[in-house]
Protein 1
Amino acid sequence: MANRSLQISAWALSGGIAVLVLGTALALAVQAKGVGLHPADWAALRFTLTQAALSTLLSCLLAVPVARALARCTFRGRRALILLMGAPFLLPVIVAVLGLLSLYGRNGLLNQTLQALGLPTVTIYGLHGVVLAHVFFNLPLATRMLLNGWHAIPAERFRLAQTLGLPSPFRHIEAPMLAAVLPGIALSIFLVCLTSFVVALTLGGGPAATTLELAIYQALRFDFDPGHAALLAGVQFAICAVAVSLAARFTLAEGLGLGLDRAPVGQKAHWVDAPVLALAALFLILPLVAVVADGAPAVLQLPALVWQAALRSAVMALVAAGLSVTAALILVQAKVAGAAWVEGAAMLPLATSGLVLGTGLFVLTRAFVRPESLALPVTVLVNALMALPFVFRVLLPQARDLHRTYDQLAQTLGLCGGARLRWLTLPRLARPLGLGAGLAAALSMGDLGVVALFAGQDQATLPLVVQRLSGAYRMDQAAAAALVLVLCSFALFALCDIGGRRAAP
Amino acid sequence: MLHLDHLTLTQDGFSVTADWSLAAGARLALLGPSGAGKSTLLMGLAGFITPSAGRVLWQGKDLATLSPAQRPVSILFQDQNLFAHLTLAQNLGLAVHPRLALSTADRARVEAVLKRLGLAGYGPRKPASLSGGQLGRAALGRVLLQARPILLLDEPFAALGPALKADLLGLVSELAAENGTTVVLVTHDPSDARRFADVVGMVHDGVADAPVATQAIFADPPPALRAYLG
């Protein structure tokens, strides 16, 4: 490797990540009280796996017709629709849940309609509500990843199928592509759903609909039983680690990339495409509209506490984004310079979850410090860590390109260290750095996980304030705060992304 | 004198060997089919590949421990000789000082080189706004400012078409003669070798033959050159 200090930083950083991820897991294993799971724990494990499997199945099945329709239709607003498919990834989970509640909740639009028609009402709480929310988040992600698959099929192949007079290109062209890409997409979504906390906290609950993550939270927050929390976190870590090792060959970030708005491949549209796209668009847009419509009236009457929380969250998100991008930049450069193992370190956080990390850090530090005093720094650290795999994946293709194009020239000029960073790396990678920072900042801004474990009354982040307000049934204020939250998330993302584009040569 | 002492270079499972020397100030063309090992040899001289056996010596000193930037060597790649996001002045400035902390005198040197190459006033321009010939000359400006005693050229200017390429190779000859630079040119075009080099070394099947005077080698081609010329 050309640069010794880069290599040392990459080693140190990987070591730090491994210590955090594996060290917390080890601390949990040591702390775990007993080895037997209660019946309630088994129920949580079963529910976690069931809801993740169902959510994955539905997201993938529904994504196929949507992606297929997008792949073969041209229409005004196609780009906007594809862009919209990226929005749920940036949307704070608590906000999306409020949007879904506004439509499908007890007094939501759906039940009001049913009542008006004299039909029985439905409840969103329980397994189907959790699955609905997960499909809302993962259907668009799956669609974007599948669309990549469709774009990767050369147009000539569809023309060949037409020349050969095949009745449909599905069997010989599309089905093999789906068979190749769907397993990876499914595993990625399964992994995301395994660690779902906020959805279960708000739409699940009770003995019948508690995920492991939620059980960890309850054991720590309400039962004050760190040993039991540690046991549950250990189980959670184990199943995530198994899932991530299965998914290691696939990438989560494929659906996040740019360049998805290419023109459709050589296929004709089908009559079914229009209704499919219309339904998908409505399914995604309506909750967003509900968030805006519910939240807008009370925004200006929000108490100062909400604005303070917004500022606190935004600062934390920017710090987490800075940490995440710095770490990803160091690791990605070491990786393209030949240290292949670095990728493992960058992907390691996928094997854990915010709550597992949080519980581990709680167990490790509680002898020395009060948990409240660490709430905010730990949240920033955990958010930076959890965003790292995504940021790394966003940087990797262009970092590889940069290395291939300019590494030898830089070496002959003796361009290294800070000078190389300033004159070569930062300008050439400005765009993916901005995009990565935007993703990390938005994810971090909207995260409600570890902070819920630790935070005292006076150090709430904005997602926590939204959750507390809705938990107290102050729905007007909750909706308004949720609107502020989603605007902050999108604004941070746009700020970083546009900043990166502007800085790019 | 550049001495390749029982040198073996290995890259991706492919090896090339060489055991000869080249007088300081000489102009050598390495000629041979693609895949024969010409570029591998050049990358070894530039310091991008560590020898698996043998040594590279310049004026009696082993270059093994020197990084590409520390070697008495500058190199023109096939392409990507300038950073696309920096201006010409910045690109050439990096050759003077890798932190781009330039004194007034440094700036004047850059401007003088641009002028010498017919690029006066082009300093603030970015590479994308230049023609192929101008890019070639700007790249030469970079190696001129590096002012190393050995210049390596890896199929340079190949994308430019014969007339422009001949022009630029003529300019390289002129500049090399002015500064007493030792030049090693990798090419698959025999007419480049004829026009440019005083000595020619055939590279074939992983062996780089000792250089032979250009006129002599074309007057009485050895079997490898005869096979190559067809």
Protein 2
Amino acid sequence: MATGKQLRCVVVTPEKAVLEQAAELVSLPMSDGELGVMPGRQALIGSMSPGVLRIKSGTQIRRVFVDGGFVQVRDDVITVLTPRAQDGADIDLEAAKKSLSVSIPKDAGAKVMKEHHNTILRARAMIRAAKPF
Amino acid sequence: MAKTRELVSRRKAIRNIRKITRTMELIATARFKKALDRAQEAEAYTRKIAELAADLASAGGEISHPLLVTHDKVEKSVLLVIASNRGLCGGYNAGILREANHRLRGNRELGINTRLELSGKRAIAYFRFQRIPADATYTQYEDKPRFDEVEELANHFLELFMSGSIQRLDVAYMRFLSPARQTPVVETLLPLSKPNTSQSKAGGEEKKAGRVVEYQYIPDAKEILGQILPASFKQRLFKCFLDAAVSEQIARRVTMKAATENADGMIKLISRQYNRARQAQITKEIAEVIGGAAALQ
């Protein structure tokens, strides 16, 4: 389906615009599963979970870790708003693996539990972004 | 003789101080540019979040969220004062502290229990001197505030507000309007002001495009809005810190520039005095020589 049209994918964090590039297919880690976006998609606003953002342009697939946030698709422009984003190539795999094996006491409060759960989710997403399968 | 030497040493001292202030001015200029770049880079996120919130608000109909609830009676509030860690930046800290103090006094008159949180050594020192105890102090926010650090603080405030232990959050900081204009303000961040619906705010823009975009919402508008409001609050707090950082550098640059110019003026004045004194001394010596020669004849 080569329509010749291209997507523009913009990733913004509160600190700066992380990346802006053209793409043919962008896969987003939505809160209820992955969502692929191709040129000509209907406008969309959605929320994301920590996960891997995949940007395919030509034969290259770029993986970017995003820590939840929101996405807006409009006129073939995908704007990803996330508190933290990190290119797969820059991720410290060892550190991510280490945070997976951190343990917490059994009687920790609900707050600590939840935080720990989020940390694990984040670390898993980071690892997935860092190494292609 | 004694006078000229004194003048020379004073001039030397002033020259040294001028060197310091000039260097500080240059450093502040460089830091200001960096801080401004950071603030401008953050702008994109702020704008986009506001845009999304506006779109969602216009789609979601009536919005109700704990962060938007305005309490009729405010019993407890937090006042966060963002000042600098270092001095030598003119009226920067004084302006912020004046505003903060004003609000603090106003709160006391209204019978509002205020929890005082301070960021920056200058603010801490000021309130210690005033014998007003602070409930929390931070010194880690410098000229490059990081979102992670601010997020921690933001979560702390969100928790306080959501649990109902405070009904309002005010932030006293120096708002950056333009490189030539900054004003100290006390801004109420919580409860959040309602997001403008796109009819009122982005209306002009959309009319230009000639259509209103129909969005698909995943999962649905209300839920996304519920998540976007905390994010928007965090961003607003972060922006306060960024503004403060930029304003501080500007204030320091302006102050140091004035100090350098003053030093220039003083050096000129003292040089003139020195030259006069030297001239007078030479004249006096010549007169003495002539006087001595005349006496010998």
